[in-house]
Amino acid sequence: MDIVKLIDNKKLVNWRRHLHMYPEIGFNEHETTKYIAEQIAAYPGIEVLRPTETGLVAVLKGGKPGKIIGLRADIDALPILEEADVEFKSKNPGIMHACGHDCHAAMLLGAVDALYKIKESLHGTIKFIFQHAEEVFPGGAKGLIASGVLDDVEAFYGCHVGVESVTGTVGLAAGPVYANADSFSIKIQGRGSHAAGPQASIDPLLIGTEIVQALNFIVSRNIAPHDAAVVTVASFNAGTAHNIIPDTAKMLGTARSYKAEVRDLIESRIKGIAHSICRAYGATCEVEYQRGYNCVVNDEGLHQFLHEIVPKVLPDVVVDKLEPRMGGEDFSEYATIAPAFFARIGAATEGKEYLAHHPGFTINEGCLPIGSALYTAFAAFILKMSY
């Protein structure tokens, strides 16, 4: 069976462009989920489950009993005003599919279409997971998992388009591919004064700058060089006037890591550094550290499996090594149920590239049939259709 011939590229483009024109923010994807359900209704016999308010799981049973496979695509957009010069520009002001989730959803709908055509040949069941709120912590995966509808799934597959990768490539790797993604805030309580009389103050600005500098030593001096990590202060706010030393200063930041022990160390050091520096200068502080999405770790067995099937299904596609990234992904939650694998689908366009979350973000739609074929092949090969 030639899986590529099962993929309807015209449908993929239409689905993707419709979703792109009507983006919705995480936990508010009501029209998006309604549209997806309407498309799936064209395939009699597929059961549509709504385990969360805006998440959807479609269940396709094969002709014979067998394993249960989960294919996941995220469906939410971002609060960004689109600047991309495309005919199908967002019609929802201030909201944009600037991360490719419209592509993922279209690819998965394409897999529904393809696998439905050969359902009688399949040994098992496929659960198509159209997941809400990947971009909004705590993420949509937790709610879908908590509902219990995925408890019987034996392997999960998901993917993400990447405009930094050439269209016609697929990135695969075992082990960590996305990081533990945490956030922190530090609020310094000092004592304000007139700027002309700084001796009367406990200056939270100066204390804060020292904290920022000290936090930048965590990775270089507390973590082994072979253990990748990031600690970044991305926001620092204090004061309202040129001649007033403020009472307080607040900073926000993120910490990224792959190992649990490194994650623990970073949290401990951030708290210790902030409290110690404040104490030294007579200030106090409140430190909040929020653990976000856990590290996405690709299963070794599924990695080997995909390395075998990609050349069979897509002989013209180049398989690249997927380098670990410091981005966060709640696909990690599915690995708490069963082995899981997350791939990257090359989607670079010609000319200037805008990376994900940029208002000018665009993708090469040539990635759509590749991504859809891999969703299809993952299920079909595991369910023995193609052996």
CATH C-level class of the largest domain is Alpha Beta
Q: What does the largest sheet look like?
A: 8 strands, mixed
β-strand number: 16
Order of helices and strands: HHHEEEHEHEEEEEHHEEEHEEHEEH
**Helical fraction:** 25-40%
Averaged pLDDT: 97
Percentage of residues in DSSP E strands: 25-35%
Structural class, by secondary structure, is alpha/beta
How would you sum up the global shape? elongated
Distance between the termini: 10 Å
CATH topology of the largest domain: Aminopeptidase
Stretches where pLDDT falls below 50 for ≥5 residues? none
At CATH level 2, the architecture of the largest domain is 3-Layer(aba) Sandwich
**Number of helices in the DSSP assignment:** 10
Q: How many independent structural domains?
A: 2
Major beta sheet, strand line-up: 1-2-4-3-5-16-6-15
Compute the gyration radius: what is it?
24 Å
